[in-house]
Amino acid sequence: MKLKSSQLAFMGVMMKRLKKINIGLVIFFAVFTLFGFFILPPILKSILTSKLSEALHREVTIQQIKVNPFTLSLTGRGLLVKERGGQETFLSCEETFLNLQSLSALRMAFVLKEVRFTKPFLRVVYQPDKTFNFSD
Questions:
Q1: How many CB atoms lie under 10 A from the CB of residue 111?
Q2: Could you tell me whether strands 89-100 and 112-122 are parallel, antiparallel, or unpaired per DSSP bridges?
Q3: CB–CB of 108/100 below 8 Å?
């Protein structure tokens, strides 16, 4: 079976388009991977530390954040919230794991599939003025 020159030309154009689409997908996949694993974690750590400190009026530190863009999960290690105006630990958690339900992200209605805390600690103090240390 012989192909006409117009059919060969059409197939050539289609192959070039398919090649461009494949190259585009590979580039997107590489950028998505690099951004999710290497660029996003330090950005999130900086934003979360400052926003949580501002909202809680306490010093907040996070040792490490890991993001897995393929499973849509985030792991935070070494969360530490100090007492307001003090150096004692108010709240700490060795590890916090959040897993986003995949389909919820597509609908922009974020739903957490799993939340896990490892070695959580909360210091509650009843103060002489009959308030708690978290009654800000």
A1: 11
A2: antiparallel
A3: no
